[in-house]
Design brief:
This protein is of the alpha/beta class. It is built from 14 helices and 14 strands. The strands form four sheets. It has a seven-stranded parallel sheet, with helices on both faces. The chain has a three-stranded mixed sheet with strand order 1-13-10.
Length: 376
């Protein structure tokens, strides 16, 4: 397993990596590589020149962490010459990002529809398709109608957007696809049902997605909200836990790669994340640097010793990251977005939304800080 470290504060990241090795054991190995160097992935133009043209249906949810995926997937596939229809959840707030930007997709020839993916009548109005990307199903019941219809159509690919959150808690990092998952996870029900139908399915397990059009801003706004105001930043754990933050366009490109991969992608699970690691503390330093302000005080706390009505911190208090090695080896995929560079664009979006000047209160922070002895 080869994972990359962000350029920022590499010395402290090396120290973090050393600590991570003690957790992952002797069978895992990290290597430090310069971001964006040595990429051998084929260009999108090459993919467009060689891949078959597909009639693609994208089932898109109404938002949350996966809300931006459909936009980028539809855009990429339309650019590659595929015929794309995006079916959105009927309860989608169309005036909110990324849905308010669907005009961009229509300009590329993408057909936008809204309807209940659990209603067989919805699909009768759409026609048939060669490939389906399911970014809406949470369990067997919610996927059954679409999956059964895909079987009837004889699709060549059924891509399912699952979640890395379904892995059982453990101490082995990075998490590989072979690790056990929670049997109670609804996403596991979907994977099992697709397999039972004999569909040419692929399941993708993303983790911590960000992007310029996201409507779930928790992961990064948590830090920007505090650093631009010079407030202490409460961090659950020691701040050296490693995470991966993956751009929504990279998630989309991994999904789309199955159209070119063919049978190599079938009946398989792929971890869907960047190979670029960063510690939580260093993420705070990067956010402050991009915002052009000094890094405020970082206050570490033990979440088991702090009483809160609800969780506040957006990440876990220990290492939690997956390895995308299978996708790189078997799909020819590579991550094209560097975290620090993309955070600059993300912050411009944050500023454009007026969030740097917005009045904010931090009652949960105050409750945490009042219970941390070394801070009080």
């Amino acid at each position: 397993v080869a994972m990359r470290l962000t350029n920022s504060r590499r010395g402290s990241l090396e120290a973090s990596l050393s600590g991570a090795r003690s957790h992952v054991g002797a069978n895992s190995m990290f290597s430090v590589a310069s971001p964006l160097m040595g990429r051998l992935a084929r260009s999108r133009a090459s993919l467009a020149a060689h891949a078959d043209r597909f009639k693609v249906l994208i089932l898109q949810n109404k938002g949350g962490g996966h809300g931006e995926i459909g936009y980028h997937l539809a855009s990429q596939l339309a650019t590659d010459g595929h015929s794309v229809t995006l079916l959105g959840d009927p309860s989608t707030k169309k005036d909110k990002l990324p849905f308010s930007r669907y005009g961009d997709l229509m300009g590329k020839g993408v057909t936008i529809k809204y309807g209940d993916a659990c209603d067989p009548g919805t699909f009768q109005e759409l026609g048939d398709f060669d490939a389906v990307f399911d970014n809406i199903s949470k369990n067997k019941d919610s996927c059954k109608v679409a999956a059964d219809k895909a079987k009837e159509w004889g699709v060549k690919h059924y891509g399912y957007v699952s979640s890395a959150g379904m892995y059982k808690p453990g101490v082995i990092f990075p998490m590989a696809e072979s690790l056990p998952v929670k049997e109670s996870a609804g996403q596991k029900e979907v994977e099992d049902y697709l397999n039972s139908l004999g569909l040419p399915w692929s399941s993708f397990r993303p983790q911590y997605i960000y992007g310029p059009l996201t409507n779930k801003r928790d992961y990064l706004d948590y830090f920007f909200d505090r650093v631009v105001r010079g407030r202490p930043v409460p961090v659950a754990g020691n701040g050296q836990q490693l995470v991966t933050l993956t751009h929504a366009a990279d998630v989309a490109s991994m999904l789309g790669s199955v159209l070119d991969a063919g049978e190599r992608a079938h009946m398989k699970v792929f971890n869907c994340a960047t190979d670029q690691l960063i510690t939580v503390d260093d993420l705070i330093h990067v956010c402050a640097k991009i915002a052009g302000v000094p890094t405020p005080r970082i206050v570490h706390y033990n979440p088991n010793e702090v009483k809160l009505e609800k969780k506040a911190f957006p990440f876990r208090d220990s290492n939690f990251f997956v390895a995308p090695d299978r996708a790189k080896a078997e799909l020819g995929w590579s991550c094209q977005h560097d975290l620090e560079k993309e955070l600059k664009a993300y912050f411009e979006g944050y500023r454009a939304l007026g969030k740097t000047e917005k009045d904010m209160s931090f009652p949960i922070d105050d409750a945490i800080l009042g219970q941390v002895p070394q801070y009080v």
